[in-house]
Amino acid sequence: MKSNRPLIWIFLLPTLVVLIPALLFGLASVQVLKEKMTQNHAVQSADMAALLQAANYTQSLGELHQGVVDMLQQADRGELSALASYRLHSSFVNELATLGGQIQTLTETPLMIDLNHGSAQHLREAFEGYRRFIIMAGDIATVDATRARHYLDEAQHEFLRFSMLTGHLSSKLAQRSGERTSDAYQDTLGHFNTLLLFGGAILALMLVAAFYSARILNRHLLIIAEGLLALSHPHREVPELPRVQRLAELGRGQLQQLALAVLRLRESEARRLVAERKAHQLAHFDGLTELPNWRMMSEHLAHSLMLCQRNGQHGALIYLDLDLFQQINDSYGHRTGDRLLREVAQRLRTFQQEGCMVGRLGGWAAGRR
Length: 369
Hints:
This protein has 369 residues and is mainly alpha-helical. The chain has helices at 5-76, 82-107, 110-115, 119-143, 148-232, 242-250, 253-284, 294-311, 325-332, 334-350; strands spanning 318-321, 358-362, 365-368. The chain folds into three domains: 5-204, Four Helix Bundle (Hemerythrin (Met), subunit A), CATH 1.20.120; 219-279, no CATH class; 286-368, Reverse transcriptase/Diguanylate cyclase domain (Alpha-Beta Plaits, 2-Layer Sandwich). It has a three-stranded antiparallel beta sheet with strand order 1-3-2, with helices on both faces. Helix 1 (5-76) packs antiparallel against helix 2 (82-107) and helix 4 runs antiparallel to helix 5. Pfam families: GGDEF.
């Protein structure tokens, strides 16, 4: 079971070629979109904070102006003492300083900077003019309450002018915030489309790579299968299997091991065929003269008799014996006797015709049919 695990990875390779890059690209795309959406959320949050700050500033300014108007009206009616007027005036000065800080913070927000129409400078200048007028009106009302009515009308006029500028600026800020939100959405959509297009291109490339990987793997497996099929067919000679040999030399990993296993099977089959030939040679041929032995001769003789009986033909069996062969062995040795037997066998083969068989029956006797 353990040796099969690498083969599983080989078969999964075309799928993994597509799946792993697709997963990595998907994770990277999600991360990019997440960062982009985080940036857009931060921008929108900053814009909403700027709009809320502008609204709070307008409300605080309205409350301050209402307090100034009440002070001037009370001073005009003679209802405020000099000390009370001074205390209210000091309170208004402190609130104006706080509003001035809010104005500075508002003009430094990204939304106000992005507006870039000189609105921040106009807002600061208008507030500074309004602040100077309020301080001056408070100072004069504290010193001379009879002139409070004149500054009451002027205060309404300054507040109206400043309120119109603030409202116009708030409208521009809201409009610009909407444009920035729309731009952020379009930018995110553009990133998404780019990632989608790029992902489609990568997926197409990965599919092509997977196709070629599968094609190469299939070709190698077919080479191995063809080699096994060639070895499984009945044959007298072992097939060469050059493609399997080349795969064993150039391949790697489990495919190379499979090719080597097929070559080892081929070598085993070659040894089996050699062993079968040797066994057949030993069983049916004489080891010295290489002529058919008595067993093969008897089988051939039985077959010939059957054919003659079936076809109404006649055959002949010639039995030869070498005279004085034992004396040759005794006088010149068995090696010389063996050479004589091989020479006689070779000469008898020259008389062999089609349908005839020359064999050695044993000892120094030979038969010819």
